[in-house]
């Protein structure tokens, strides 16, 4: 195996974290900001790219790290290595309510494609790169643009998604239509495209966007019930405006303030 062989446990229900158990000299690579805690003998090191050693030389490493800018990520990743004796643990937390999904790349032909902010961490040796869309319509209207993230190798990877996760196994030729924001990731065999919703009423008044993501089997697809963009939109919609309170349905909200003794409007 090229990737380190790691053990793990996932804790929690809605705000999960994953605990990675490392043997001596084993390592795990993670995005900045996902670290939660680690044992004393785990050492942290910031590196260019993902540490998969696919690129050699300083120019190759800079090129590999530079591609990450296209996904909105930073130039650097962090690798955590067990430099002590015996097994030690390091943990990474989910950034918002949802689920952590373990992805064994050996079960998916060595490659998994996901939305660009889904990656959490992976065994050292797994390559974390970018996946360009070859279809103009998918790139312009697919919600994730021309670029998605891909994980390649033979190790364990972990992605995070919002709300409850649905795992769909598609038969050859089977078609699934998904809201573009709810799509988390899929295996390399899946044919991914976008489809116009159609119909004047659906387009203007449907409130579900103009396009579906269409996924045709065979392959495995992961779908999230609560995209972060949807959660953030609801929070912003209920945020106070001009320093005032924003009640649940403005008239009733104001009435509630009076009954509660709060006369601010």
Automatic annotation (TrEMBL):
Q: Which InterPro entries match?
A: AIM24 (IPR002838), AIM24_sf (IPR036983), Trp_RNA-bd_attenuator-like_dom (IPR016031)
- SUPFAM superfamilies on file: TRAP-like
Coiled coil feature spans: none
Q: Which residues form the signal peptide?
A: none
Transmembrane portions of the chain: none
- Protein name from the UniProt record: Uncharacterized protein (TIGR00266 family)
Tell me which species this is from: Tenacibaculum adriaticum
